[in-house]
Amino acid sequence: MFKAVSTDVSFPKREEQVLELWKQRDIYAKSLARRQDAPSFVFYEGPPTANGLPHPGHCLTRAIKDVFPRYKTMQGFRCERRAGWDTHGLPVEVEVGKELGIHSKEEIEAYGVEPFVQRCQQSVWRYMQQWERLTERLGFWVDLESAYVTYHQSYIESVWWSLKNLFDRGLLYQGHKIVWWWAQGGTALSSGEVGQGYRQVADPSVFVTFPLVDTPRRGLLVWTTTPWTLPSNMFAAVNPELQYALVRVADSDQELWIAADLVEAIATKTKQELTVLETCRGSDLIGLRYRPPFDFFYADKADAAGDLVAGGRQAHYWRVVAADFVTTDSGTGLVHQAPAFGEVDYEVLSTEQQRFVEGQQPELFHCVASDGKLTEQAGPFAGMWVKDADKPITRDLKERGLLFFQEQYLHDYPFCWRAEQDPLIQYPRESWFIRTTQFKDQMLANNARIGWLPEHIRDGRFGNFLASNVDWALSRERFWGTPLPIWVCQQTGRMEAIGNYEELLAKPGVQGTEVWQKAKAENPELADDLRVHKPYIDAVTYDSPFADGARMQRVEEVIDCWYDSGAMPFAQLGYPHQEGSREQFRQQFPADFISEALDQTRGWFYSQLAISTLLFGPDSQAATDGDGPPQRTAGNSVDVAADADQPWPHPFRNCIVLGLMMAEWYEPKKGDKKNIALTEADAKEKFGGAFEKKVGKMSKQLRNYRSPDEIFDLYGADALRWYFFANQPPWTSILYSERTIRDSIPEFLLRLWNVFSFFTIYAEIDEFDPTAGVELTSGQLSPAELAGGEGYRPASERSEIDRWILSELNRTIAAVTERMDAYDNYGACQQITALVDGLSNWYVRRSRDRFWAKDKRSADKLDAFWTLYETLVEVTKLIAPFVPFLAESLWQELTRPFVGSGKTAESVHLCDYPKSDASRIDQTLSTRMQLLREIASLGRAARAEAKLKVRQPLASVTVVLPDQQHVPWLKAHDALVQSELNVKAVQYVTDAEDLVHYSVQPNFKRLGPRVGKNVPAVKKQLAEADGGELMARLQADGFIELTVGEETLRLDDQDIQVRLQAREGSAATQGPNSVVVLSTEVTPELFREGIARDLIRFIQSRRKEMGCEFVDRIVVGILTESNDVKQAVDEHRDMIRRETLADEILEQRVPGSEPQPLSVAGQDGELSVAKA
RNA sequence: GGGCGUAUAGCUCAGCUGGUUAGAGCGCGUCGCUGAUAACGACGAGGUCCCAGAUUCGAAUUCUGGUACGCCCA
User: Fold this and answer.
1) For the residues of A851-884, what is the DSSP string, one character each?
2) Cα(A900)–Cα(A241) distance, rounded to whole angstroms?
3) Can the peptide bond before residue A962 be classed as cis, meaning omega within 30 degrees of 0?
4) Annotated catalytic residue: which of A600, A608, A780, A892?
5) Which of A148, A265, A554, A1042 has its CA 20 to 30 A from that of A486?
6) Is A1021 a catalytic residue?
């Protein structure tokens, strides 16, 4: 049987119990086992790194990642959820470096690559426990035991396989990458590190003359802010779209090309008089050859030239080229290009290289060594530190008459975050690239088929990013990462890629494996996976197939760890090496659903798409061993039809892109801004009144957020989850607001719990038994199963309100399903909230007296029980994916009476998701009930207006409706309105000119297209006409006629809408569909009845104070001087006794009671109550 | 500097394809209810829908141009 549950519930405590239950009974495994042969719904976990502590943002990601797999599992899909960990990369090296107190590459090498890498491998798991605990506590069901790990040998071998594939197809190549370089430290810095070091500095800005080869009197006026790069000049860039002017400099024969828009500005700035001789478009200047300011390279290469792809021949260097980044915002409109020292400049060189035929392309040159000093090639400047060379170079130009102008220029420039005095420079490094640009169109086509949420990601941020794709710079000159599996012939320089470790060992003349064997022998604890890492793998060499006697040696680099993560769809399976991985891959590719935050656009979203497109795209068939793209026949996707001929989209069909999470905190208006408070209450206590609320980024330093653990302990995981799901669409920036998280408890969790608690209280008292007569088959307490229950009647035989809530339930189930299938958790939650509100504030509220009815077995009472029970059971399943803990608690309680049978599903998460029963949806009933609720609400508003509390009975209300349609139905529900508004009678009228004023408006949506420009005229005529008369005519004829201009319009009741307006001075309120008018007269009889209701209330609260059980009977004594009160007791004795379970009402003090003062009808008295 | 996004009540946000009284929750205020009760309900105040222009019979919604903020990239 049911047992009344306390309303004093601690959700965190209950959640811990639920976790224990899940663990004991292995519910997650069972939920998968149930769907073993079902169609799959594929989910990919984007691997987080356990190298840092999890924070609130991870909770959101993990909550979203949880809700859809849970939902799909209940919907009948098999959804395997494999966890994964990202373990490589610079952050790990930095952590270890901190521990060791070292940071430069040299220091790491001095420390020893071998112990360093070993430490990295151990360090990766530093926060593992916290991550696992968070995952579990949040209720994120994911298979942690079989998690994929990016440093595992099988994972790395998958990555190798893919890289070999790319290498063999000519898609991996060596080139230069311009990096931010710390010359003193001899290392490249990541963009994150560079970002930390920006400072404002003054640098020289110089305008230099480049004389044209054919007409030396004419020159290009070229701008640069880095004079030290001038010796390495290769081109001058113009914007082909801009206008350029040839100007003569007054008092000289010099003629210079500059941007036309800048003539005046430059003249003013340089105090020179400039005369425009001619103008042209930038594109007309392209190809002009000039003499560079220094001869260091010019001496050798002035005549270097090559054949063009498009035919013809062109000089390699020192000519005008096109670059659309050139603007007229500053400088001269012509920009000096030293591709070695600028990423954009380098792109210009790349573009130029592509114009020439293979083997005849211009090549990068420069004269700066990696230590930041100019080389011997720089002649007199050799040996100078680049920044120190600015001045001598400028002076030299000036002496030779090439310097036109110089000034100081303020801008932000990056410095090394470890050595603040050291400016960083852009510098070319050898690097490996993947030829992704060749697949740009395919990637775009692939992207176009992905269901992005929000949609604008596809054409916006992600689409633009793809459209401006550059080749993927894959290699890293670091230590802890997947080694690039390319071996080089030491003699010929020819290379080959290796696809796995075994393949390497099978090479002829293999040597060097003993390095690993020795390490392992010395330390058997070493993870075997390390053998495919640096430095062990570097030691492995073999005989070159390209030259007799030569050896093959691995290149030094490791790869970008984003490649690791992007390879996850196949690498998590060890594809294609592991046994069974091909079959698994075919079943688990592509994913139906993934989700990460917006910052992954250029990260995991891109790495996955790029790798997948290159490896499994249309023209990769041959290279994938004949497997081709393994297209799974379709599970489930939005917008994207599973089209057998179209290989897209992969590797994921739907992606929810989460917004960034913001923190909310309070800081004092005065004093230490670091001394913050996390809640308003704390702030009040700490700072008095003087504080302000702040919203901003989460910050570890400021600690402006509460740790997830604390949230779980204080409010519970469901509160946090519901807050995430139900408060905003997930792609907006989400405020991590402790107050709002806390508020989700009373707003939703507790409200539902209270309904449930109400149910159990009366189910226990009345011994409601849902088991009798029920034959369990599925054990899910489905409507069909419950239909056999004792006293269960078909919905059609139950009362209106029962049918109403069942209709709302099924309507909601349909809506939630529709929303969730569209990956819209927010919309789904709004539906659920509305249902629970209706259940609590209308169904239970309006049904209470049915549960209080004396006859325990009356059909109506049983209907109420069955209806509420069934609704609770279905709601429990409905909310299970969202708030799995509360749902489980409810399920365990709701199934309690059946437990003996052993046939009920042992967890709500082993149930099917509810199916909407269309036959139970009654739209008319919904509309009518809505109207009824409107009337009740208006009635209450009218009472409030007239200051007549609901406890005071009134004679009647009059409800004015514009049409008769629903009146018969409403009349049948008089009792409901009467009790809700505490009135004796309800009248419905449509024609009540004395009470309301009718105003008639056009139905714009209908009439707009029909009458167009005449809409305002129609509106005016309708407004000016007598509303009541129009109504009468409409009701009599079915239409009205209006003359607008030349035309006569016939309008029916669909074309116009009648609005009611309460007349001034009556106790009336108006709503969208009706007006409710209150009869405000309080007769003596009504007054006394009000007194009786007051007395009931006093007695009830006294009962409660005394700790009476619900069924205890009492004796009541009322002492009063008031005749009204005495008379009220006489007249309403039965009602008072019935409501308060009083055996007797005496006009004296009840012996053995504690008398209480009583104030009713403005009279004092005394109330005494005792148990009978 | 470029790209993307956002701007609606005191706060956090809804508002689909244009339809004339712009909504919710919280907060605030007033009142009510009192055997679901440390809950709950009703009502109220509170809006230049960022600004300007355009399209239209009609614009929070579409277009153009600004402004502010956020993110990503340079």
Assistant:
1) HH-S-TT-HHHHHHHHHHHHHHHHHHHHHTTTSH
2) 83
3) no
4) A600
5) A148
6) no
Q: Is A438 left (phi over 0), alpha (psi -120 to 50) or beta?
A: alpha
Q: Which of A1039, A1002, A997, A998 is nearest to A1017 (CA)?
A: A1002
8 Å CB contact between A787 and A31: no
A165 vs A122, A199, A374, A430, CA distance in Å?
Answer: 31, 44, 41, 22
A936 CA → B32 C1’, Å: 14
Q: Specify whether the CB–CB gap between A843 and A807 falls below 8 A.
A: no
How far are the Cα atoms of A10, A259, A758, A836 from residue A753, in angstroms, in the given order? 11, 73, 9, 10
- Of all nucleotides, the one whose C1′ comes closest to residue A1094's CA is B34
Give me the CA A735–C1' B74 separation in Å, rounded.
Answer: 29
> How many residues are listed for chain A in this entry?
1172
pLDDT, one tens digit per residue, over A145-166 is 999 999 999 999 999 999 999 9
CA distances from A13 to A130, A441, A889 (A): 20, 54, 11
In terms of DSSP bridges, do strands A243-249 and A274-281 run parallel, antiparallel, or are they unpaired?
Answer: antiparallel
The model carries a pTM of: 0.84
DSSP state of A921: -
**Gyration radius of chain A over CA positions:** 40
Whether residue A483 is preceded by a cis peptide bond, meaning omega within 30 degrees of 0, is no
Structure tokens at A774: 């029920």
Pairwise CA distance, residues A640 & A619, whole Å = 22
Supply the angle between the helices A750-765 and A884-894 in degrees, to the nearest 10. 0
H or E segment and range at residue A93: helix A90-100
Please confirm, yes or no, whether A794 is among the known catalytic residues. no
Does the annotation count A86 as an active-site position?
A: yes
pLDDT per position as a tens digit, A1000-1034:
878 888 888 777 778 888 888 887 777 777 777 77
Q: Which residue has the tokens 């003062």?
A: A1157
ipTM rounded to 2 decimals: 0.84
Scored b (16 or more CB within 10 A) or e, A797-824 reads: ebebbbbbbbbbbbbbbbbbbebbeebb
Catalytic residue among A98, A518, A673, A697: A673
Of the listed A22, A487, A562, A842, which one is catalytic? A562
